[in-house]
Design a protein that fits this description.
With about 280 residues, the protein is an alpha/beta fold. The chain has one domain: 4-Layer Sandwich (Nitrilase/N-carbamoyl-D-aminoacid amidohydrolase), CATH 3.60.110. It has six helices and 16 strands. The strands form four sheets. The protein has a six-stranded mixed beta sheet with strand order 5-4-3-2-1-16. The chain has a six-stranded mixed beta sheet with strand order 8-9-10-11-14-15, with helices on one face. Helix 1 packs parallel to helix 2. The protein is globular and about 50 Å long.
């Protein structure tokens, strides 16, 4: 079985409705190209505000379901498309998450992934102020077209969750991100390819593009899809708004896992040290 998938890299403006409309247009364009599964960039509907510490940004948080997900559910149903919507989730005062909402092709919300690992990195990531660490584990969603997992930005530095998504049967893992050229460009083509190779699934990863008022640096795009064998199938530019699409042959997952039998050869009985809090 083959599916057509897409990720976005869209320059941000400080206007939530304008950003939503940009992504509505992206969905429409992707649908015209036959895309069946699509993922937006991390916290897609405004600037990546986590580079600064300012309580005013809490006002961007939104209930799920809410107006943004309602709009995206309508689009998913209209175009028979699975859409992954990374957004700022409001639960109640004091409880907020960095969340990806998974909407199936019938327009129904299948569930959520809440980012597990929260960075606090000087000058580029103060997420511990804005979000609680995710509490939903690493779910895999049985969508109309494939089994789908999500990992968000800083999560990609941790192989454990990526492994769990594979063990739960993910065919495709989306990794939406917001990462600056000065911080992570040397890792961008290493970690996510490594997840695909180690777990025998497809990865579609997307980064922001261009400059934003709050950030001291450039978001370098370079969004891409990688196969279960580690081959980069398609990659976006470093400086242009784009929808990056790829045809994914899901039969390659089974073939790869037979030839490179990493799951067969795992030795779980000797991995106990992985869950020791302190070495």
């Amino acid at each position: 079985m083959k599916i057509k998938a897409a990720v976005t890299q869209i320059s941000a403006v400080e206007d939530t409705q304008a950003m939503i409309e940009k992504h509505v247009a992206a969905v429409e364009e992707a649908a015209a190209q036959g895309v069946q599964v699509m993922c937006f960039q991390e916290l897609f509907s405004n600037l990546y505000f986590c580079v600064v510490e300012d309580y005013k940004w809490f006002e961007l948080a939104e209930k799920i379901p809410g107006p943004t997900t309602d709009r995206m559910c309508e689009l998913a149903k209209k175009f028979n498309m699975v859409i992954v919507v990374p957004m700022y989730e409001y639960v109640q005062p004091g409880i907020y998450y960095n969340t990806a909402v998974i909407i199936d092709a019938d327009g129904a919300i299948l569930g959520k992934y809440r980012k597990v690992h929260m960075p606090h990195v000087a000058d580029c990531g103060h997420e511990k102020l804005y979000f609680k660490p995710g509490n939903l584990g690493f779910p895999v969603f049985d969508t109309r077209y494939c089994k789908l997992g999500v990992y968000i930005c800083y999560d990609r530095h941790f192989p454990e969750g990526a492994r769990i998504l594979g063990l739960k049967g993910a065919d495709l893992v989306f990794i939406p991100a917001a990462t600056l050229k000065s911080v992570s460009s040397h890792l961008w083509h290493v970690e996510q390819r490594a997840h695909a190779i180690a777990n025998g699934y497809y990865v579609g990863t997307c980064n922001r593009i261009g400059t934003e008022r709050l950030a001291d640096g450039v978001y370098y795009g370079s969004s891409y899809f990688v196969s279960p064998t580690g081959q980069i199938l398609v990659q976006g530019s470093e400086d242009k708004d784009e929808i990056i699409t790829a045809e994914l042959d899901l039969s390659l997952i089974r073939k790869t896992r037979m030839e490179w039998a990493f799951y067969r050869d795992r030795r779980t009985e000797v991995y106990g040290d992985l869950v020791i809090d302190e070495p």
